[in-house]
Amino acid sequence: xxxxxxxxxxxxxxxxxxxxxxxxxxxxxxxxxxxxxxxxxxxxxxxxxxxxxxxxxxxxxxxxxxxxxxxxxxxxxxxxxxxxxxxxxxxxxxxxxxxxxxxxxxxxxxxxxxxxxxxxxxxxxxxxxxxxxxxxxxxxxxxxxxxxxxxxxxxxxxxxxxxxxxx
Length: 167
Prior knowledge:
10% of the residues lie in helices and 37% in strands. The protein has 2 helices and 8 strands. Strands 2, 3, 4, 5, 6 and 7 form a 6-stranded mixed beta sheet that branches. Strands 1-8 form a two-stranded antiparallel ribbon. The longest helix is centred in the middle third of the chain and has 10 residues, at 106-115. The chain is elongated, with a radius of gyration of 25 Å. The model has no long low-confidence stretch (mean pLDDT 86).
């Protein structure tokens, strides 16, 4: 998402509203996908060779529940602030480079999204998860795997079953 600042007057605030194509590659390592594109809306101001942007990112992500693997849609509305310096000038820490009067908000937006991703998503607070033996979703139905494993006459084909007799 590029913003052309060629006609911006120093010290004046300018609004912008754009859409960034959602890239599921930034969600690698988690079971999730974007549901639609990323909307970005905010203002920018120039000061000498620097550009300062204050914006809001709005997007939806479909996660897999950490316990039962059901789809869970989460909506995000996060603030994204970024500072840019003119490429070739002195580099300041925390600033992104820009050139030819074009500021690209894609990198700061993607970093802000990554920083705001939850570490764990549940479909509901009391999600029961999946049965470890048969894989049944315990939120939807029950299984008899627990009862069968506790019976003395039935021993599962498990190398640790001999430990059951130790006291």
